[in-house]
Amino acid sequence: MRYLSFRISKDIVLFSTLLINSMVAIASQKSTANYQADVIVYGGTPSAIISAVETAKSGKSVIVVSPDKHLGGMAASGLGYSDTGNKNTIGGLARDFYHRAFLHYQEDASWKWQNKSEFGNRGQVTSDTDTVSKAMDTESATMWIFEPHVAEGIFETYVNENKIRVLRNEWLNRETGVVKQSGKILSIKTLSDKIFQAKVFIDATYEGDLMAAAKVSFHVGREANTQYKESFNGVHFGDTVHFNRFKQKVDPYKIPGNPKSGLLLGISSDKLQPNGSADHKIQAYCYRVCMSENPKNTSPFPKPESYHPERYELLLRLFAVAGTDWFNYYDPIPNRKTDTNNHGPFSSDYIGANYDYPNASYAQRKVIIKDHENYQKGLLYFASHDLRVPQELRDRLQKVGLAKDEFVDNGNWPYQPYIREARRMVGEFVMTDNHVLGKLPVPQAVAFGSYWLDTHNSQRIVTSEGFVQNEGDQGHPVPKPYPISYKSLTPKKSECTNLLVSVCVSATHIAYGSIRMEPVFMMLGQAAGQAACLAIDQKSAVQDIDYNALKSGLQQKGAVLEFK
Q1: Do residues 290 and 411 lie in contact, with contact meaning Cβ atoms separated by under 8 Å?
Q2: Residues 6+ apart with CB under 8 A from 102
Q3: Which of 478, 85, 551, 144 is nearest to 331 (CA)?
Q4: Cβ contact 252:362 at 8 Å
Q5: What residues contact 323, with CB distance under 8 A and at least 6 apart?
Q6: Beta strands at 195-197 and 34-36: parallel, antiparallel or unpaired
Q7: Three-state SS for 228?
Q8: In this predicted model, what pLDDT tens digit does every residue of 522-562 receive, in sequence order?
Q9: What is the CATH superfamily name and number for domain 35-108+117-221+483-556?
Q10: Does residue 46 contact residue 73 with C-beta atoms inside 8 Å?
């Protein structure tokens, strides 16, 4: 019995030792996969980087968890002709970004494909109410037009200067990766099983994935005008100030005049709903393609992996009734390049193909994004190669191509499509068109917006007369710059107390059409970074921080929070 007791005790000791060693090993493995900081920023957008810079400058530790390999979001993915509105409203780190762009283009070495004097101090029209302003403003030392790689370089410089830790290609586990307790996010986990713990989290993605995974309320689609007593929300069918609708009567059917033959690709059979009514549809996405007219820096438009010429039959019909006045509008950026946006009734916007994107899984989004890429590459290839396209237009298109020195590791194609709108938080305060138009007051301003109420088409339908038409395009002037509320960055307190949202802010579809500009996202990112630090210092929920302290801190750093 004594021997048996000794043997059992020895086995227990041995087992305990193995168990402890195993637990230590597991803990050691977990500690190498765990990351801690005062603030975790999820996203690789300009708003994400600016919020991280503000956090670091305020003395708090910060980690950027970025799904993207390349930092800078749309600013570094083709949107180089900044949608600024009134430039006097842009302050703080956002203005510093444009100052750094100015400094870059003061260097002779920055003008590889064009003389600086040739580009000149050209005018830039940035909204209906904004006068033509200087793109390269020597007086204010700002440059508002830039090449994609220049923007990416500035964001990388911010990261290096402020010693910000960035983990790239890290995707939030949207199913089980957010751990909450008593209304607070304790940690988030990525698909690579890395765990990130923080006191405050900032969602700075275009999609609002962290916000949604944290069970914060959000909306996708267009609200009815009646929901918030708005004037321009919901379905909008009629004249616009833009050129993105069919001015001529174009037949929508595969066999002209025969509805039984079916609709051409890209045309919806949905019945047009009354103006102002709600639906699930969102404004179209496209790639902001960077093109070049310099033969030494031009790569021909590629034929996409999946090429279907029948997708562009509607364009041929447009040519037949409207002529080839098609590829004649693009925004010039330095070095004989372009920021090429959608323009006209049939262009780069892939209308109606993105409805599922905001809530789609990563795999589903990958399919949707690839479909957008194939559509737009196919459009350029078709217009420059198909013999049914008028010779004059083909000749014109074959003189340009993708800029060979941009997106060099992605076949000269932009890294991401322009996600103009995805989820929008329903938070403490919802910005509506009444706030944007100055009809209602806005509490606790943290930035100013000034761009028009700008939304792209949401659907392409058949009218009651039997012709094709686009619906959803709007561009309404904003009478003066308007404040954006801090409360539109915070979820409802009952839902989460340590999360800030700086891109998918709390706003209606039409109000978001004005807010959704990269300079504004940068300013909101700075506000979110400083608010996160205040919440930590004051040991309070993000909804309860001292707004006067936030306002004072932002103003000391150059933010414009009062505008006359």
Answers
A1: no
A2: 136, 137, 141, 142, 143
A3: 144
A4: no
A5: none
A6: parallel
A7: helix
A8: 999 999 999 999 999 999 999 999 999 999 999 999 999 99
A9: FAD/NAD(P)-binding domain (3.50.50.60)
A10: yes
Which two structure tokens, joined as six digits, stand for 163? Answer: 């010693």
Q: Is the sign of the CA dihedral 223, 224, 225, 226 positive or negative? A: negative
pLDDT over 90 for what percent of the chain? Answer: 86
From the list 45, 50, 17, the residue with the least C-alpha distance to 557 is: 50
* Residue 244 CA to its chain's centroid (Å): 21
List the Cα angle 137/138/143 in 5-degree steps: 40
pLDDT tens profile 310-342: 999 999 999 999 888 787 778 999 999 999 999
Domain ranges of the chain: 35-108+117-221+483-556
Distance from C-alpha of 104 to C-alpha of 146, rounded to nearest angstrom? 9
Q: Which of 192, 191, 188, 194 is nearest to 213 (CA)?
A: 188
- H or E element in which residue 155 lies: helix 148-161
Name the pTM for this structure.
0.92
How many other C-beta atoms can be found within 10 angstroms of the C-beta atom of residue 107?
A: 9
| Relative orientation angle of helices 92-105 and 46-57, to the nearest 10 degrees | 110
